[in-house]
């Protein structure tokens, strides 16, 4: 198990997103959910999945005690550990690593954690049918120590093709955790991969991941592949204001599958009303047998949507209707601004 310190957050994020091309699979943004838990006396387990950074209000108290923006259990747990079971927001994923944030938990933080996983494909059963004592649970993050009020990053050394859709966070023996981030390479459902009907191959649910970006000062490029149209500007991709003539920003996304026919592309500027890009351009490229991101200035990029005027708070739909094989798309915004989502409907 490789561990990264709090001051190595950027290094960890680069390894996860660029080297392993993986994404967060439990967040509220991808519709991950809490299935069950052992205890949440002081603070709800659902807080673990919030996409926002934790906050603290030391003046706030509830009936249970001091208010915390995280998951906190009672003292004096008589069992070995407290636990939470989650269902991934994606079909399944190969696990790369995780982040455990104990922000503001000092003196009541979790001393140690581990993570287990299982794969359950019975669509007829409810998530609540997954038991804490299920014999299929297997370790994906071994037991590791945690310190107070800090971010902890853990990266698996032995990566396998095994993929899972349910996960159990174990906290030894009790205490508090503010946020839990689990990162993996998404495995799309087989019916999506084999479908003759165009599906969104630029969706996180179908294995897409943003792997390179020129700038993401106000919002991550991975927001471009999230489900839905979001709730405000915070869950889109937004760059700094440029001051240089001829400036452009760009984001490169690896599609979930190789395309054979591209039906249409949608670029959504939902909630970006005074800061949408003036123009957009979409290009595609096929990269064979490598996980490295194609260079943004590679001459092999093929134009899918030529430079087009963009507008505020709307879905811009472009009919492509081409037989074309690509593995990646590049969205270019001119000169800068914010975009909520990009969709590439293809087979």
Explain how this protein is built.
It catalyses: allantoate + H2O = (S)-ureidoglycolate + urea. One of its GO terms (molecular function) is allantoicase activity. Its EC number is 3.5.3.4. Residues 32-186, 207-346 form the Allantoicase domain. 4% of the residues lie in helices and 37% in strands. With 347 residues, it is mainly beta. The protein has two domains: 2-187, Jelly Rolls (Sandwich), CATH 2.60.120.260; 199-346, Galactose-binding domain-like (Jelly Rolls, Sandwich). The strands form six sheets. It has a five-stranded antiparallel beta sheet, with helices on one face. A five-stranded antiparallel beta sheet has the order 3-5-10-7-8, with no helix packed on it.
Largest sheet: 5 strands, antiparallel
Number of distinct helices: 2
CATH topology of the largest domain: Jelly Rolls
Q: Supply the CATH superfamily name of the largest domain.
A: Galactose-binding domain-like
Number of strands: 23
In summary, what is this structure?
The chain is mainly β.
Keywords:
Allantoicase_dom, 347 residues, EC 3.5.3.4, 2 helices, five-stranded antiparallel sheet, 23 strands, Jelly Rolls, 2 domains, mainly beta, single chain
Write the SSE topology.
Blueprint: E1 2-4, H1 9-19, E2 23-24, E3 33-37, E4 71-72, E5 82-87, E6 92-101, E7 112-118, E8 138-145, E9 151-155, E10 166-172, E11 176-177, E12 179-187, H2 190-193, E13 199-200, E14 209-213, E15 237-238, E16 249-254, E17 261-268, E18 279-285, E19 302-309, E20 315-323, E21 328-334, E22 338-339, E23 341-346
Antiparallel strand pairs: 1-9, 2-12, 3-5, 4-11, 5-10, 6-9, 6-12, 7-8, 7-10, 13-23, 14-16, 15-22, 16-21, 17-20, 17-23, 18-19, 18-21
């Amino acid at each position: 198990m490789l561990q990264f310190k709090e001051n190595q957050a950027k290094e960890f994020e680069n390894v996860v997103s660029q080297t392993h091309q993986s994404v967060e699979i439990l967040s509220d943004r991808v519709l991950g959910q809490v299935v069950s838990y052992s205890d949440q006396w002081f603070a709800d387990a659902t807080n673990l999945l919030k996409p926002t950074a934790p906050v603290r209000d030391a003046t706030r108290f509830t009936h249970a005690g001091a208010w915390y923006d995280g998951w906190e259990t009672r003292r004096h747990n008589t069992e070995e550990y407290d636990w939470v079971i989650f269902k991934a927001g994606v079909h399944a994923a190969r696990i790369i690593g995780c982040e455990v944030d104990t922000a503001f938990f000092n003196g009541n933080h979790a001393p140690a954690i581990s993570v287990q996983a299982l794969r359950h494909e019975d669509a007829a059963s409810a998530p609540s049918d997954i038991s804490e004592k299920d014999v299929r649970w297997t370790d994906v993050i071994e037991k590791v120590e945690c310190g107070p009020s800090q971010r902890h990053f853990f990266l698996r050394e032995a990566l396998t093709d095994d993929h899972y859709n349910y996960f159990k966070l174990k906290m030894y023996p009790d205490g508090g955790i503010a946020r839990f981030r689990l990162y993996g390479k998404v495995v799309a459902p087989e019916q999506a991969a084999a479908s003759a009907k165009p599906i969104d191959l630029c969706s996180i649910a179908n294995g897409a991941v943003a792997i390179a970006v020129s700038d993401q000062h106000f919002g991550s490029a991975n927001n471009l592949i999230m489900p839905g149209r979001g709730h405000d500007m915070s869950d889109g991709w937004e760059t700094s204001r440029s001051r240089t003539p001829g400036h452009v920003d760009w984001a490169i996304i690896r599609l979930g599958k190789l395309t054979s026919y591209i039906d249409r592309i949608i670029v959504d500027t939902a909630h970006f009303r005074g800061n949408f890009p003036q123009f957009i351009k979409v290009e595609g490229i096929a990269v064979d047998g490598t996980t490295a991101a194609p260079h943004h200035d590679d001459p092999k990029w093929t134009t899918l949507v030529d430079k087009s005027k963009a507008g505020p708070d709307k879905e811009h739909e472009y009919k492509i209707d081409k037989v074309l094989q690509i593995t990646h798309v590049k969205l270019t915004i001119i000169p800068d601004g914010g975009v909520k989502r990009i969709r590439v409907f293809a087979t």
